[in-house]
Amino acid sequence: MKNLYLCPHCHSNLNPSVKIVLVASHRQRKGLILLSPQLGNFQFVIDDHVAEVVKAGTKVKFSCPVCAADLTSGLNRDFAEIYLDSPDKKPRRMLFSRSFGTHATFVDKGDVTATYGEDVEDYDRINFFGS
Questions:
Q1: Would you put residue 20 in left (φ > 0), alpha (ψ -120 to 50) or beta?
Q2: Average pLDDT over residues 75-100
Q3: Could you tell me the CA-to-CA distances from 115 to 12, 55, 66, 97 in Å, in that order?
Q4: Which residues have C-beta within 8 Å of that of residue 114, sequence separation ≥ 6?
Q5: Which pLDDT belongs to residue 56?
Q6: Where are the domains of the chain?
């Protein structure tokens, strides 16, 4: 079963095909970004218009391509937040770094937080989900 990613605001499917589709913006530049739906895979494709102005460490704003809601997490502004649908149909929060080049993703799995990426240890003292 493929992972299904949802907007936390409008609950639209963010990966209707093989990639997660979001809008990325920085400094008045806006374009689409395609992310891998495979947890721990940090490969992406980004619009050249946005890629021209981002470098390592740049904070990118992500938004929903359907409702245009800002996906910056209320739990930690350094992260974007979307939902990962689960087999029990209770969406789980998924936070991923907004800093270009930082590989850190956190998924709330109820009683445990799953982590992905070589940069997660930089955030080991942050309690994202109250667990």
A1: beta
A2: 89
A3: 24, 24, 27, 12
A4: 39, 106, 107
A5: 87
A6: 5-123
